[in-house]
Amino acid sequence: MPVEIHARLLGDGVVFAGEDIECTIEFKNNSKSDKAEVAWATAQIHCTCSMTQARGPGTPEKRTTVQHTSQEYAYSPTRGERGTLQYQTPAQILFCDVVLNPNESRTFKYKGTIPFRAPPSYRGDAVAYTHKVAIGFQRVGEASELLRLPVRVLPLDATLLDACRRESAVVATENAKRRRESAVQLSDSGGSETPPIDPFLVREVSDGLLYSRETVIHAISSLARRKTPKTFKIGSANNNSVVRFHLAKPSFKIGEDIVGWFDFQGLSSPCYQVSVVLESIETFETPEKEDAPARESIKEYSKWSHFCRHLTSTTLTLPIPLKATPQFSTDIVQVEWRLSFEFVLECQNPVSEDPNTDIKENEQTDANLDDDDDVITCAPELIDVETLRWNLPISVLPTHPSNLPSQNLKTSYEF
């Protein structure tokens, strides 16, 4: 008779590197008359890295390749996975030799910690990182089975870690001051001091220094808050025209809108069109040749385009998708973000001094004019233009995990 297993992640299934993952696993005997015996069940977290042929043929792997066993009774959390194993947490035994009576169900809990220096969940053109909770179980006399739950891990890059250290240092100083003041007050009153519990404090774990979620969120808000707008003057060596671009802030959280505005006043040559593309740059190493330059792959997320021939200013709004991965860096890949600009400007030395003279004569003579004073204004057929391209690096940071699409999908399996 089949035994049904239900697994569900507690929370949204989206965490920062270094946080805990919890899930519930329920085993239910669907039989109405027979007992069911489950030999064992275990759970652990693992991450795999898969690389495409874009890295080049013959590229050596830097990690231990996932080993797949051919024995059906052996437990392997990475069975069927492709790529290289980045890490796996110690296996936690949920139970051994459990007998389920007819229609009986039992629920177990698993709690594991994502390593502090784990790579984020990412799927790029050349590299992909995947995090999963693997639940293994086996009935007596049958083959072992696996059930996997995907987990989305958000990165903590160097910029964000520096901000977390600053926030923790400020909070620790304020807490020490409050404790001293509290100790003085308690000593005067003859009481005993009880140290306060602060969620912003830093705690030590086996994988290194770990900051609380409150500290990380506060650091992200501090980096991504609106500051004094920055102004950029964009021009070329062959064209004295300068377009001014104002950016509200240089750092953004995924899910936010990038807001800026253009100033076309004072241009010596008109600007006909401006386009802006939000791009991520995936840079990966080529270890087969030490002196070979790193390869790049560019991915577009959103695009904004506007015709601005007779405008003095216009506003830019570009959304950052929630599915996007914030900036991060590992030993084999680095992901950065930028805004790619393209301006279409009129050449200052056009081929034709008056483009309107290229209008065909029959287009004027075919027009029936009742009054000789009437005037027909026709657009030029050809305009000499030049294209100006410019890239502006920006910072894309994580957001609060509750703002992201939930990964908490209940998974069921019968065995």
Describe this structure in words.
- By secondary structure, the protein is mainly β.
- The chain has 3 helices and 23 strands.
- The strands form 5 sheets. Strands 2, 4, 5, 6, 8, 9 and 10 form a 7-stranded mixed beta sheet that branches. Strands 15, 17, 18, 20, 21 and 22 form a 6-stranded mixed beta sheet that branches.
- A hairpin with a 2-residue loop joins strand 11 and strand 12.
- Helix 1 packs across helix 2 (213-224).
- The radius of gyration is 31 Å and the shape is elongated.
- The N and C termini lie close together (9 Å).
Describe the structure using short key phrases.
single chain, 415 residues, mainly beta, seven-stranded mixed sheet, six-stranded mixed sheet, 23 strands, elongated
What's the short version?
This protein is mainly beta. The protein has three helices and 23 strands. The model is unreliable at about 55-70, about 195-210 and about 355-370 (pLDDT under 50).
| Principal-axes shape call | elongated
Beta-strand percent range: 35-45%
Helix-strand topology string? EEEEEEEEEEHEEHEEEEEEEEEHEE
How many strands? 23
Radius of gyration: 31 Å
CA-CA gap between termini? 9 Å
In this structure, how is the largest beta sheet organized?
7 strands, mixed
Instruction: Supply the helix-strand structural class.
Output: mainly beta
